[in-house]
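# step 3/5: fold
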Amino acid sequence: MKNEALLHTDFDNLQLFKRGKVRDIYDLGEYYLIVSTDRISAFDVIMNEGIPNKGKVLNLISAFWFDFTRDIVDNHKITINTDEYPEECRQYKDVLNGRSMLVKKAELIPLECIVRGYITGSGWSDYKKTGKICGIELPAGLVESEKLPEPIFTPSTKAEIGLHDENITEDEAVNIVGKEAFEFMKNTSLKLYKKAAEYALSKGIIIADTKVEFGYYDGKIILIDELLTPDSSRFWPLENYEKGKTQNSFDKQYVRNYLLSINFAQKPPAPPLPEDVILNTSKKYLEALNRLTGITHVP
């Protein structure tokens, strides 16, 4: 299998609005067009190689969850059907098919809304030092990857590319977005996580934690960005789960493990990725898509 990945998009007659770590956003006037590329970042560094089909997987999983959770909160998805896109997009249909989404133009709320259902990652590091996660007191004696008594909400700042998000307290989050908006985002994030985690578990996937984002549209707060993907969440295979250790996952595990094995300095420039790391990562993303949605191949 050859590594054929879409790293960048460049559409002559579309106005590029923003280029993120993975997604390129185009301003179509009335709408935004979000294109999910195959770029991959690890330790906040964008790799030189892409992961084949990764962007399509992220886009299709997000589309699935946006529809699945619409009873909880409205979101920015309009359609992923390229036949329904504005006329100026039609000539790029072959590139856009499967990896793009036409969305409402919402105003970003600058807060990362993180829900943790299991103790892992930076939360585990925090707990070992303080007995808390982001200032939230937890029971003594928890072990790595253990399920928390109840999911917790731990907001963070939204950093620019190349910088790290910083965990903040609820009071600090209120200062950023206001009390009413904060309470809505917190309660909604927890509802989203609980519904999605229960469904995913029935498909053999543990959602250990996730990050969601919101924006203002027509005076209301709606869901934006991506939703419950392997890039914005930790997905663990249920069949291999065992608390007390680091878990296998459906995301960048192969990439992270390789970078750690070569003592990567976690800053640019990125080292070249071996072909087996790239292809094994691609397979993991596709497996997550298949388990959650039943989709067996991407467009």
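# step 4/5: annotate
The mean pLDDT is 94.
# step 5/5: archive (pending)
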